[in-house]
Amino acid sequence: PLTGADLDAAVLAADHRHVLHSWSAQAHLPSFVVAGGAGCRVWDHAGTTWLDFSSQLVNTNIGHQHPAVVAAIKEQADLLTTVSPATANATRAEAAERILALAPAAFRKVFFTNGGADANENAVRMARLHTGRDKAVSAYRSYHGNTGAAVVATGDWRRVPNEYARGHVHAFGPYLYRSDFWADSPAQECERALQHLERVVVAEGAASVAAILLETIPGTAGVLVPPPGYLAGVREICDRYGIVLVLDEVMAGFGRTGSWFAFLQHDVVPDLVTFAKGVNSGYVPAGGVLVSAEIAATFDEQVFPGGLTYSGHPLAMAAIVATLDAMQSDGVVENAARIGRDVLGPGLAEIAAGCPLVGEVRGTGVFWALELVADQDSRAPLPPTVMARIKGLCLERGLLPFVAENRVHVVPPCIIGEDEAREGLGILAGVLRDVTT
Ligand code: PLP
């Protein structure tokens, strides 16, 4: 049997021959293998290790192979590996109760899905049925998933070849560094973005708008932390026109921002919250929708016309319960807040101060982005060729980064310690110093 580098080469060859990869031209595929992982590190068969500053797809909030979660999945597998969603099941009921306990009292029920996209699908469906209206307004700078309505709600390029679902409208959200509103302060950006959003709602016919669907902090679009008052202002627009506010916390939720939900830091309570990723760190695929008491009541007598074979899958539910236990007993959310405040925030600011490539640093908790520019004045994005070199250098030096367009997102697991965080920042600083532009 092959081992080490030979095994890596064989795995890569087999992968490239047989696996059709997401969002990729198949002639240009990733060139490294992940064979295993623990905590914040992953490795290949040859024993090369990387410090994971990506949390894979920003989902391993408790890191790799948390022993208590792995044990809970095994225990559930011995008990019952699958069950119909139409039955009641103790693990599912417990998972729902545990998630609701972390959210404001306004939330009454959880609808479980397989991941984030179908959570958004079902949230938009609930909003449509609850309001009797059709349209959903979301942001151009967003990602909501890869199924019919979720991909059309998405604002970025992934929407354009996939526009089959109907009734989706987009608006620009606040993004002061590249303001669409000619604003020069957070307050002005906030006020003008809200005015623009309301204009879109009214121009579309407010009485036809079922939902405003926003990522609390747009993630893949660049960790665009909204200015103070923006989400509260969106809430007011929703209330003024009877629109359901759906906040997508698939990436921002479950510790990433240093709180259980990102919206808790923004003085707003939505009507529906979608989640996935961090709820069980992706150990078993799961997502869902937190449903307010008012919207839940809509489906007391009226049938909810949606479902999934694996809604509330026992292995995923056991992973949720064990993940929440581990996060609470290990103080994972508090750790994310502390590392953001004491290490990543100041460390990234220091990198930015000494590096002409960094246009802006944004973020909170373990959810940060460095926006890289070719020129500080024009703010021209660093070109893809240079970004590819940055990614390559990081990998060579033992850091697994999350690179999106002209940005490096710094999104390590929420469990990351001070030493590992500083180690990753050191590698990143060196790469930004040494890269040829
Ligand atoms: N919503 C947000 C904010 C996301 O970041 C993602 C995935 O990255 C999704 C939804 C889609 O989730 P999934 O890939 O689990 O369907």
Automatic annotation (TrEMBL):
Its EC number is 2.6.1.55. It comes from the Bacteria. Keywords: Aminotransferase, Pyridoxal phosphate, Transferase. SUPFAM superfamilies: PLP-dependent transferases. InterPro entries: Aminotrans_3, Aminotrans_3_PPA_site, PyrdxlP-dep_Trfase, PyrdxlP-dep_Trfase_major, PyrdxlP-dep_Trfase_small. One of its GO terms (molecular function) is taurine-2-oxoglutarate transaminase activity. NCBIfam families: PRK06062.1. Belongs to the class-III pyridoxal-phosphate-dependent aminotransferase family. PANTHER family: AMINOTRANSFERASE, AMINOTRANSFERASE CLASS-III. This is Taurine--2-oxoglutarate transaminase.
